[in-house]
Amino acid sequence: MTHTLTGPRFPIYKSSPELYEAMMALSTAAAKDVEPELGELIKIRASQMNRCAFCLDMHTRDARKLGVSDQKIDVLAAWTEAGDLFTAREQAALALTESLTVLGDHGVPEDVYAVAADAFTQRELGQVIAMAVTINAWNRINAAVQTPPPRR
């Protein structure tokens, strides 16, 4: 039996407002000391990988409002092929985000972690990790209840 998306399965954030509040608190905490533009790239990349249309819609719009170029947003799914379009810090954060989004049998590869640890202070690295973990949680919640993007 297949399920056709006609809307959310149930309004999880209305049914469980504590969940929404906790996720918002985690999102706010994770965003501290991370450049907003970098944060949006992290959120978009994880959301692409997790196929979360709701989050992709939200974070691509937010990124554009912050001045992230259309080109960066357009090629983000293939950032490793984009030459120097992305900064070293962005590349380190994106590689770490991808590793955290699809954890293999051995977790985050040592080389990915080492590049990120060189690109960020310990505080920043913790925040980047927290941001990737947080957007993955949002993506999984929205996937479970099939939250569609709002119609514009």
TrEMBL record:
Pfam (any one): CMD
GO terms of molecular function: peroxiredoxin activity
Family matches, as Gene3D superfamilies: AhpD-like
Superkingdom classification of source: Bacteria
InterPro entries: AhpD-like (IPR029032), AhpD_core (IPR004675), CMD-like (IPR003779)
Carboxymuconolactone decarboxylase-like domain span: 17-98
Name under which the protein is recorded: 4-carboxymuconolactone decarboxylase
Organism taxonomic ancestry: Bacteria, Bacillati, Actinomycetota, Actinomycetes, Mycobacteriales
